[in-house]
Amino acid sequence: MMTDSSPARSLQAPAPDVPQNAAACASAEALALRDVSLVYSTDKIETLALDNIHMSVRRGEFVAIEGPSGSGKTTLLSVLGLLDAPTSGSYHFFGEATERLARRERARRRSQRIGFIFQDFNLIGDLSVAENVELPLSYARVAASERRERVAQALGIVGMTHRADHFPSQLSGGQQQRVAVARAVVAEPSLLLADEPTGNLDSRNGEAIMELLLALHARGTTVCMVSHNPAFSRLAQRVLYLSDGQITKETIADGVRR
Question: 20 to 30 A Cα–Cα from 219, which one of 16, 61, 155, 176?
């Protein structure tokens, strides 16, 4: 359990776990994008946000995504999270083709299998800490008794049990982000998507959030994180670099892949 006054710890990247053959790679894939492009269209202009993205993420892998502003990082995360659909190409989500999923089915996959963490926390000010964390379970129509148990467990994981009855305005930035992490993991998602989770935090609280993400990854969660902080990105098993909607480079724990 951590508090805002916890001393900074030495963070270490998890060791890469690379399957040894093609068959193992295929069975281990959580996410697979093939030739994915996404175009945003208005009456006057078309913007190519993603350009021929080809990538995969293994089950239980921790992947960071880096790139300058406007490079397509958040758009890529939105596609991975089934918030946006590609204009072309294919996306397989834990072995399931997503191209023909109806909007309701995409929403169901999100609620059942994906947790989101945002830079701006996105907590609801009129709800208590416990009520904010409980929201995903309420949407999923989980029984009240189970909701209470899961909320208590999630708050325990992030060290915020003592703040369960407080409101977001009564919390520091680091505490709010820990509540956001608890909300993201309370439904025990297969995939955790984090968009600049340390962007609004000082270095100490940023390290505390990274420690949480590493701990959740160690429990088997697949993690994809957008970050502008190279030191935090290097804690991932793999880093993808985006520029102008394209993956231009990829690094793994023991060096540059391409």
Answer: 176
Query: Residue 78: which of 46, 122, 38 has the closest Cα?
Result: 38
* Each residue's pLDDT tens digit, 179-237: 999 999 999 999 999 999 998 898 888 999 999 999 999 999 999 999 989 999 999 99
Q: Which helix (DSSP H) or strand (DSSP E) does residue 211 occupy? A: helix 203-218
d(CA 77, CA 67): 13
Place of tokens 């175009």: 39
pTM: 0.85
Task: Outline where DSSP puts E strands in 101-221.
Answer: 114-118, 191-195
Q: Using CA atoms, how far apart are residues 208 and 2, in angstroms rounded to an integer? A: 8
Q: Please, are residues 180 and 122 in contact by the beta-carbon 8 Å criterion? A: yes
Domain positions in the chain: 22-256
What the block records as the tokens of 21 is 């053959």
Domain 22-256, second-level architecture:
3-Layer(aba) Sandwich (3.40)
User: Do 198 and 227 touch, CB atoms closer than 8 A?
Assistant: yes
